[in-house]
Amino acid sequence: MTPTIVATVLIGGILTGCVYALMALGLSVIFGVIRVVNFAHGEMMAVAMYAAVFLFAAFGLDPLHALPLVAAGLFAFGYALQRRLVEPFVRRPEHEQFILLLAVGVILTNGALILFGPEARGIMTDYAFDSYAVGDIIIDKTKTIAAIAAIIAAAGLLGFFRFARTGKAIRACADNLIGAEVIGLDVKRLYTLTFAVGTACVGVAGTLLAMIIEVTPALGPELTLLAFVIVIVGGLGSMPGAIFGGVLIGVSEALAGLLIVPSMKSMLSFALLIVILVLRPEGLLGRRPS
Amino acid sequence: MTKSSDNRTISSAISRRRFNAALAASGALLAAPATLRRARAAAPLKIGCLAPLTGFFAREGQNCKRGFDVAGPMLADMGMAVEIMMADTESNPDKARTAAEKLIGEGAQLLIGTFVSGETAAVAQVAEQRGIPHVINIAAAPQITEQGYKFVFRNFATGPMLVINGLGLIKSLFAATGTTPKTAVFMHVNDTFGTAMSKGIGALFPKMDMPFEIVETIAYDPKAKDLSVEVTKAKATGADILMPVSHGADAIMLIREMVKQRWEPMGVMTPGSPGTYEAQFYKALGKYSEYVIANVPWIDPKTAMSQEFAKRFGDMFSGEMLELNAGFSFEAVLIAADAHKRAGSADPNALADALRATNIEEHVMIGGPLAFNDKGQNVNIASAALQNLERRPTVVLPAESAEAAPVFPMPGWGDAKRG
What is the ipTM of this complex? Predict the structure, then answer.
């Protein structure tokens, strides 16, 4: 085990973790504000991946150029979904929300199966097989591009919630719903916007992930599970927690593959999840319940 | 197609009571209206075909279904009418068991399936309990035909057969090309199939006097989304060749990572697994798919029946690649239809007796006649060395079925020969 190998694996883990982080950010944003757990999160991400694959196959559109289109499409999808379907369930029992979004996930998975078939589909850009060599360390070019784009998108999202008027209003709803209603904020509209922003975030993450891995209809539920592991480790509802959790899971999976056994990579993620749930149920960066 | 002695065996086994019953039935049939007689005469065998059409193995399941779809009309033209009753196992053994029960309830007289060893074992149990013949199209776990089942027949190589055939072809390849590597790294998917292959290689490799050493074995998660760590570890061994046991998408990830990490061993050759000869592999990897070798059971390009099967497959599924899952699925229906024809009945016991006496000389896959031993296993199945040449799987060994000469060592990733 040379330092070169460890460095190669570690860098790969961090780069993948950045995309994971963006994926989890969308889930965390929706839960942090609306308090609805999106059980169709991974399936929506698979939809974004299929959209990116389609745009590449049909129009030769590089995923980086397709990003705004897919994000806009997912924003519209999220907006309509929240307005027409999720909104009536916001104040209903959690198990009803759970079943609703699970049903949406099943429909999306089977819809993808009908439309695209069971075969794995990917994007082979001109740089899909390229890598950078820094001394003996090999760095994956596609992962690097995807990670940089994910960091920019995450920074943009955090900036939106910190500086934009609408972003601040959404945060106000999350912090104190009654107070937000009292001062006249249109909570219903802000909830819809939040859901749409969350799914747009998923759109960006899905497009970037499509550059790294191939999409199959069965991938959706796996991504949902992965996103949940990340946000629970980082802290459900915490945006910095989602980012930290994403990178942590990416790195821990990579190092587990190298130092233990590759087939036990996922097991380490779940072991980490159990440890966090036992020792710090609110997650590493989540708020302790008052 | 079948030896006449088979018919004689069956005839001599008919008792006086059964003969009288058959005579009475014939008399009743003769007295029936002509349309009914035609219907009885042409009554097709109802075959319940199970495959994982959705879920994790959906891609392979769909390939099996294509084989079933071609079999129906082609066998009808050969005078063997069958009715295909398709069922989805959803890549889940419990669902496979339920689907098998349902098919039998709906009138299936014989079962075929499934592709996944775990599902197949569940279906075999149902078939045995219900006394309905089960012809296994694809499933390699050896224990399925070690249970003493009377109604289960497998026309696919067991894990050890795949390993012995696959390793044997690797030796033949080195002999044919005059190049012998010294070391190999073995990477396998960590599921039922991959683990069985790993155990098989562990047990058989030392006994087969192989000319190289396996320096490391790396198991990876079947649902892995990234194989960069695994390839980094494999590259660090400095092995001359890579022997992967993969399924599909993982084979693509593997080669893509090798290219990215600039690892150029002398060759990539699977001792007996899918993934490297499928349409998606060529589509996703382009020139990097070239020269990869898979030692697997394959369609014999040189028999009349396989050529007819390939033609009909192309007509029916334009743009889809003909591969072994479709071939073995077709052969399973062929075996069932042949048994039905010889048995002259859809009675389960008569069908099972006829299946035991199966001896089909000309068929689709490479290997000897289709026939079953006492355990219900076809031991005549052979493998082919299949090399990706000009973006298609090309038989390069055995010599009698070869379409081209093998290329080894493989050219580097950037070599102009890759096109």
Answer: 0.82
